[in-house]
Design brief:
Radius of gyration: 43 Å
CATH class of the largest domain: Alpha Beta
Shape: elongated
Distance between the termini: 74 Å
Low-confidence stretches: 1-19
CATH topology of the largest domain: TIM Barrel
Number of domains: 3
Structural class: alpha/beta
CATH superfamily of the largest domain: EAL domain
Helix content: 55-70%
């Protein structure tokens, strides 16, 4: 069935990567069966028939070891198998020790004989391997490397070793007289405590409380209890049934096997969310007991000899040094945290460059020194040109990648005494200090512009981006915020002059900025207050002299400021985005006017069109096509009666978005015209990609035609190109009859200019 579906779909369904494959079926059930078997084993090994106890004990060990190995190779994901392989190795060593106890005569008798050391050859490495396995799980599960879990484990282990020596090893040596064997036996409860602490720390390493984790915790607790009873029995300190010890060992291994088989074992080797907690009461009490216990015991229990005293001194030294290490580690961790907090407050999180706060502090610190050294402080305010296009085209991840690459390049090409800061978005500031009246800042600005000519190697390939730089200088009395503001103002001057340049600040720029801000505030609400109006300039058919249509132009008359030139308010409206609503209003106003004019025309008269300018911001607005559809529906105009004029430079701001919007408009059926042709990119390849029908030749090429001017050959070439591409040409700025006649002789289609009529309000416009 699946093969048939694949064949119909014409594609292959790849197998899931090994790390993503689900655990085996019935693994969860098998884990709980093993856990139940652990309970049954304890009952049978302590109360069942004597002949069955030894085989059942061995079966429990074999089953647990097999389950551990199965979980390591079949349940664990391949990338995280290392700790589980170590756990399997530890189980194999324990099993080898058990078999040695069974096979070698005298290895399992109590009180012990020297032959009891033979199983320990396998068991001691097995314990170390198990501890290494749990430590490996903790290292993978816990992302916070400053967690002192292993230090706490050493503390508890050293304290337990002190108590084990005092109350288990030393007394049993006196009774049995085999110090090496008793020392080896005392090792087991101590390392069991370390195992319990490591397993418990797995539970503290994240929010996940997996069933496999609790199986391991319970298994470690049973292992600890078994080793403790084993040491008491072999030390002849109390009568402990051997079957009870074997039952605890066997149950512990079955629980370890259950933990390895349960599907939740995967979470024990996966990074968990960092959860910073204060020390719990239980953990604090455990550490306190590990430290106070040896102190109290050392006071209460007298030293019985040189060996006893030496061991106690050694273990107390380990405790003291571990506590000292924990204190030093905690202090250093806190210091690192405080340094990180301070750095986050003064540095940019993305690029790790100084931020605005540190920049301001640095300028303030330099100011006093600048007066004494007769130096001046210079700021280079750098803004990436068209950075939004990078984010829109490739996404914010690539945008961040570019910002980091820019930060690295800037830092590598300034002096060690200079400061490179990122103060927001795609804005960088370079602070310099140098001799007064030097051209240091201008020289650095020129070098930086040259640096941006080299591509930035990003994950999507080489990306070229330019920058606009504003330069501001001040003496020792410089105020940081004022200097940053002046450099920012100069940067906008550089952008206004065509980008990819630098500009120096002067006081006139401050006045220009103030005027621009005032103009922006005045323009807000101009539409609602009825201050905007439309004018109409005729477009004439050169062959017949008839009016073919009109271009509508937005005008603004403020009640206090008077008439404001479009050259002033259109850039402000464009920059602030206010042009979107104003442009939609102009489109509706012009279309409504054209609908009324067409209705007034006599039958058989030439059908007029209306040409409306579309701004760069409107092209980026995907709602433009919706507005056009609504306007056509409201006015009843045919789509080809509406011409939308775009500029080459506007399209090139974001070619992909513009092409998508133009394609929607073309599908509606409106006529697209390229305005100011010849002043922008003038690329035939791009012109061929644009769904345009009209080319409007810029007025700068029309000024000297008919007088054997230098531009006549360019106009002829454009006209020839347009004919080949099946485009119509509108000549702008025609002001003389000589220009009109020459253009008509060259078979230019349409023209507009003051020769045919200047832009007028609708009531003043004469329809020819």
């Amino acid at each position: 069935m699946l093969d048939a579906e694949r064949e119909r779909a014409g594609t292959e369904f790849p197998a899931a990567p090994p790390d993503q494959r689900p655990p085996p079926r019935h693994a969860r059930t098998a884990a709980w069966l093993l856990a139940a078997a652990a309970t049954i084993t304890v009952v049978f090994l302590t109360a069942g028939p004597q002949p069955l106890r030894a085989p059942l004990n061995l079966a429990g060990f074999l089953t647990g070891t097999a389950a551990i190995g199965y979980g390591a190779w079949r349940v664990a994901v391949p990338a995280d198998r290392a700790p589980w392989r170590h756990m399997t190795a530890a189980a194999g060593l324990f099993l080898a020790g058990l078999i040695t106890r069974i096979v070698v005569p005298g290895a399992a008798v109590s009180p012990p004989t020297p032959m009891a050391l033979l199983p320990d050859v396998f068991v001691v490495p097995g314990y170390l391997m198990a501890a290494y396995a749990f430590a490996g799980m903790l290292r993978r599960r816990r992302a916070d490397h400053d967690d002192p879990a292993w230090v706490d484990a050493v503390l508890v282990g050293a304290g337990s070793a002190f108590l084990a020596w005092t109350y288990l090893v030393a007394p049993s040596i006196e009774r049995v007289g085999l110090p090496l064997i008793q020392f080896a036996n005392s090792f087991f409860p101590v390392i069991d405590v370390v195992l319990v602490v490591l397993v418990a720390q797995l539970a503290l390493a994240g929010s996940s409380r997996a069933p496999a984790l609790w199986l391991f915790v319970l298994g470690a607790a049973l292992l600890f209890t078994g080793d403790l009873l084993y040491s008491i029995r072999d030390g002849d300190l109390a009568g402990v049934p051997a079957d009870l010890v074997d039952a605890l060992y066997s149950a512990a291994f079955l629980l370890f096997g259950a933990g390895c088989v349960h599907p939740s074992m995967r979470t024990l080797t996966q990074p968990q969310q960092i959860m910073v907690r204060t020390l719990s009461f239980t953990r604090t009490a455990l550490i306190a007991a590990a430290m106070l216990g040896p102190v109290i015991v050392a006071i209460v229990e007298p030293i019985t000899g040189f060996v006893d005293g030496a061991v106690r001194v050694l273990l107390c030294s380990v405790l003291i040094l571990t506590v000292l290490f924990r204190v030093v580690r905690s202090n250093n961790s806190r210091a690192r945290a405080e340094n990180a907090i301070r750095r986050r407050a003064t540095h940019d999180a993305l690029t790790d460059l100084p931020n605005r706060e540190l920049l301001s502090d640095t300028i303030g610190a330099w100011s006093g020194q600048a007066v004494a050294d007769q130096q001046e402080i210079s700021l280079l305010f750098l803004d990436l040109d068209r950075f939004k296009m990078v984010n829109d085209h490739w996404g914010h991840q690539i945008g961040d990648e570019l910002l980091c690459a820019v930060a690295g390049r800037l830092s590598a090409h300034v002096r060690s005494t200079d400061l490179v800061a990122r103060i927001g978005g795609d804005e960088f500031v370079i602070a310099l200090a140098g001799p007064s009246h030097s051209i240091l800042a201008e020289s650095v600005a020129g070098r930086l512009l040259a640096l941006f000519e080299q591509p930035f190697p990003l994950s999507v390939g080489d990306v070229v981006v330019s920058a606009s730089i504003g330069v501001a200088k001040a003496g020792g009395t410089a105020e940081a915020l004022e200097l940053i503001r002046d450099a920012d103002t100069a940067m906008y001057k550089a952008k206004g002059s065509g980008r990819n340049a630098y500009a120096l600040f002067d006081t006139s720029l401050r006045e220009d900025l103030k005027d621009r801000m005032s103009l922006e505030q005045a323009f807000r609400g101009a539409l609602e207050r009825g201050e905007l109006y439309a004018t109409y300039q005729p477009i004439v058919d050169l062959a017949t002299g008839e009016v073919d249509g009109f271009e509508t132009l937005m005008r603004w008359e403020h009640p206090e400021l008077g008439f404001i030139s479009p050259l002033r308010f259109i850039p402000v409206a464009e920059e602030t985005g206010l042009i979107v609503d104003a442009g939609a209003w102009l489109l509706r106003e012009a279309a409504g006017c054209l609908a009324r004019w067409r209705a007034q025309r006599p039958p058989g008269a030439r059908a007029l069109h209306m040409s409306v300018n579309v701004s760069v911001r409107q092209l980026r607005d995907r709602d433009l096509a919706v507005v056009v559809r609504e306007v056509l529906a409201e006015t009843g105009l045919p789509p080809d009666a509406l011409w939308l004029e775009i500029t080459e430079s506007g399209v090139m701001e974001d070619i992909e978005t513009a092409l998508a919007t133009l394609a929607e408009l073309h599908e509606i059926g409106v006529v697209m015209a390229v305005d100011d042709f010849g002043t922008g990119y003038s690329s035939l390849s791009y012109l061929n990609r644009l769904p345009v029908d009209i080319v409007k030749l810029d007025r700068s090429f029309i000024n000297d035609v008919g007088q054997h001017g230098a531009n006549e050959s360019i106009v002829r070439a454009v006209l020839a190109m347009a004919r080949e591409l099946d485009l119509r040409v509108v000549a702008e700025g025609v002001e003389t009859e000589l220009q009109r006649d020459w253009l008509r002789d060259q078979a230019c289609d349409l023209a507009q200019g003051w020769l045919f009529g200047k832009p007028l309000r609708a009531a003043e416009t004469v329809l020819a």
